[in-house]
Design brief:
- It is a single chain.
- Helix content is 37%, strand content 21%.
- The chain folds into two domains: 3-100 and 245-276, Leucine Dehydrogenase, chain A, domain 1 (Rossmann fold, 3-Layer(aba) Sandwich); 103-242, 3-Layer(aba) Sandwich (Rossmann fold).
- The radius of gyration is 19 Å and the shape is globular.
- By secondary structure, the protein is an alpha/beta fold.
- The protein starts with a strand and ends with a helix.
- The strands form two sheets. It has a six-stranded mixed β-sheet with strand order 2-1-3-5-6-4, with helices on both faces. It has a six-stranded parallel β-sheet with strand order 9-8-7-10-11-12, with helices on both faces.
- The chain has helices at residues 17-27, 44-53, 78-83, 102-114, 131-140, 155-164, 176-181, 228-235, 244-259, 265-276; strands at 3-9, 32-38, 56-61, 75-76, 88-92, 95-99, 123-127, 147-151, 171-174, 188-191, 216-219, 239-241.
- α4 packs across α5 (131-140) and α9 crosses α10.
- Bound molecules: 2'-monophosphoadenosine-5'-diphosphate (ATR).
- 2'-monophosphoadenosine-5'-diphosphate binds next to α5.
Length: 277
């Protein structure tokens, strides 16, 4: 019998995870199947009980359930507990256990594309303070000498986010206007909001006009492949990265967690690029 995996979200119809997961299972000769599940808010608890009852061995969690899913899991690992968000669940000894490695997937993608092994003293701007920013900030706050500015429309939410990396010495909360003004101070800018996502592709949280020479700009959005902020950054001389590698890594890491099998995320990226172009 095939092992079953899936993803829950709402909306979920446009998720590309089923495509890249099922392709990876085939390529690696795995007897498994991946299904996207559209779940209504009020059905979340029942949906999770149902998935357990029918033997789903692992599932990914996306918007809007990353935080909401926690009360319905049997266990949550300490990092996901701290981030108050889960992106992948694994069935272990009769229990659903939640984990979160969104930030690690993003960081791996960043380091690879920047050609670095680690970060040292970079000055970094995080745009946004939602669930995605949370994971990214947590991953970045392990580098104690980097300087991190968090800019968000609602500054109180950025203050909350700062508490997550409470041992981090150099984190400041600033307004979006200040971020725009000071944009030439940053080595790395990461855009974590949904602004600029298809179909509202002419929007951007910040106007890029005067970046630091050699700056790297990362946007976690992958549709469109080049958001307005990335286009402006490229035109301003920056190296840029969209969210495709992060998405591929999230999927590859999930498969490895569920099955112990390493799969190629580069292959997943090729499929994503083909599908989205
Ligand atoms: P996710 O889990 O995908 O990160 P989220 O938790 O809803 O989603 O967070 C969305 C982020 O996008 C937040 O930082 C949000 O800013 P606020 O905290 O001020 O709401 C930001 N965002 C969304 N729409 C925005 C807009 N029109 N202008 C500025 N920021 C916006």
């Amino acid at each position: 019998m095939s092992e079953l995996f899936g993803i829950i979200g709402n909306p979920i119809a446009h998720s590309l995870s089923p495509l890249i997961q099922n392709e990876a299972y085939q390529l690696n000769g795995m007897n498994a199947y991946f299904q996207a599940f559209h779940v209504e808010n009020e059905d979340l608890e029942t949906a999770i009980a149902g998935m357990k009852a029918i033997g789903i061995k692992g599932f990914m969690v996306t918007v809007p359930f990353k935080a909401k899913v926690i009360p319905f899991l049997d266990e949550v690992d300490p990092i996901a507990e701290k981030k108050k968000a889960v992106n992948v669940v694994k069935f272990i000894d009769g229990k659903y256990v939640g984990y979160n490695f969104d930030g690690e997937a993003w960081l791996q993608a960043l380091l690879e594309d920047m050609g670095l092994k680690s970060l040292s003293k970079e000055t970094i701007l995080i745009l946004g303070a939602g669930g995605a920013a949370q994971s990214i900030y947590y991953a970045l706050s392990q580098f104690e000498n980097v300087h991190i500015d968090i800019a968000n429309r609602t500054m109180e939410k950025a203050e909350e986010l700062k508490k997550l990396g409470q041992t981090h010495r150099y984190t400041n909360i600033i307004s979006l206007e200040d971020a725009e003004r000071r944009q030439d101070q940053y080595d790395i800018i990461v855009q974590t909001t949904s602004i600029g996502m298809w179909p509202e592709t002419n929007r951007s949280p910040m106007n890029i006009t005067h970046l630091k020479k050699g700056a790297f700009v990362s946007d976690i959005i992958y549709n469109p492949a080049e958001t307005k902020i990335l286009k402006q950054a490229r035109e301003n001389g920056a190296q840029t990265q969209n969210g495709m590698k992060m998405l591929a890594l999230q999927n590859a890491l999930s498969i490895e967690m569920w099955t112990g099998q390493k799969v190629s995320y580069e292959r997943m990226m090729e499929s994503l690029e083909k599908t989205l172009s």
